[in-house]
Amino acid sequence: MRFALSEDQTMLQDSLNRALGDLSPLERVRRFADEGEAAAPDIWAGLAELGLPGLTIAEEHGGLGLGMLEAALAAEALGRVVAPTPFLGSAVLAPLALKLGGSSAQQARWLPQLAAGKATAGVAISEPVAGARDGAGVTASAGRLNGKALFALDAAGVDLLVVADRAGGLHLAHSAEAAEPMPGIDATRRLTELNFADTPAEALASNQALDRLRDAAWIVLAADTLGAAEAMLAKAVAYAKERRQFGRTIGSFQAVKHLCAEMAAELEPARALVWYAAYAFDHAPDEAPLMAAHAKAHLSEIGRFIARTATEVHGGIGMTDLLGLHYWFKRIGQNRQLLGGPEKVREIAARLQGLAA
For 135-152, how does the pLDDT look when each residue is reduced to its tens digit (9 = 90+)? Predict the structure, then answer.
């Protein structure tokens, strides 16, 4: 059996890569990071014209009705240009939460708006997935939320929040009592601290919905890292072909050749791992949790290796703001820790296999 992308999936990938080259060039990413924008509505509006916000939303609600593999391909393209978009929250996790646990009325209200890009959604599931810190955690009682959620994704200035409580239940809230930006190494993706004080919320049916959101998030973050690592490798190879030292291009030196070859050798099988994890999410649900964990943990390690090695190939200029390589470096670093670093994810994978208590 040959596992490869279909013609439609290849066309999706190609069209996104072309569009993002215009919508999210490095100059636009730099402006977003330097000016501290909460969102980049121009980029999201351009992607909405391609139907990206509705990628995983059913056609009956105005979406494209595609699956997690297509979402992973989109995340890969977004990571390749470090695009500052609410893709993970608005196009993947919030629609999935509504699909798994939302009532017909909740789905009818929110899914068409999300699919059209007219509404955006943030997701706060870090505490029950990766463990609470600094006293964080949200409790739910009688349709009210109380407590603090850290590292909320895509949650700045959104229309809808999907919040997980300490027991793993999911809730929809329109706003938080307070939403404060959290410092992070990646200036292209905003993290938010949400504080709730008797905040009204609508409960979603649970039925293991949080585990599915966790798996989807791990896959998308792994795909985003894959795209960022691909970009860093391509930039390192291009630089090695043009930079001259001692009268020769540095790419002709054996040491530099080995660095680039090692990056390519590590990256190529990682792509198959991410794609299969995304495929399994929809078509092999029994395998999906473990494959998602493997993808997240492995790409966290491979991404860090490529980020470091590609920067070394560039030498001193790789550390400068002028080149901008640090945007990809920091995206990979933040993806590594979001919703659990590789050590935490492997611990969860061990529990899934009955190898740890």
Answer: 899 999 999 999 999 999
pLDDT digits 0-9 by tens, 82-133 = 999 999 999 999 999 999 999 999 999 999 999 999 999 999 999 999 998 8
**pLDDT for residue 133:** 86
Query: In this structure, are residues 202 and 171 in contact, taking their beta carbons and an 8 Å threshold?
Result: yes
CA dihedral 287, 290, 293, 294 (to 10 degrees): -90
With respect to residue 198, please indicate whether it lies within any of the assigned structural domains. Answer: yes
Looking at the DSSP assignment, which residues form a beta bridge with residue 181? Answer: 192
- What is the structure's pLDDT at 2? 64
Q: Which helix (H) or strand (E) holds 45?
A: helix 41-49
Question: Would you call 271 exposed, middle or buried from its count of C-beta atoms within 10 A (0-12, 13-18, 19+)?
Answer: middle
Q: Within 10 Å of residue 103's Cβ, how many Cβ atoms?
A: 13
- Indicate which CATH number applies to the domain containing 80: 1.10.540.10
Give the whole-angstrom CA distance, residue 91 versus residue 27. Answer: 25
Q: Positive or negative, the Cα torsion across 184, 332, 338, 69?
A: positive
Q: What is the mean pLDDT of the chain?
A: 94
Report the predicted TM-score, pTM, of the whole model to 2 decimal places.
0.96
Burial pattern 3-35, b for ≥16 Cβ within 10 A else e, equals: eeeeeebeebbeebeebbeebbeeebbeebbee
Same domain flag for 314 and 261: yes
Nearest to 221 by CA among 345, 60, 57: 345
Residue 341 has pLDDT above 80, yes or no: yes
CATH of residue 197's domain is 2.40.110.10
Helix, coil or strand: residue 174:
coil
Here the CATH number for the domain that contains residue 318 is: 1.20.140.10
- DSSP character for 168? S
Going from the C-alpha of 298 to that of each of 15, 118, 218, 271, 348, the distances in angstroms are 28, 35, 11, 11, 14
If asked whether residues 347 and 216 sit together in one domain, one would say yes
Enclosing domain of residue 241: 209-352
Is 2 within a domain? no
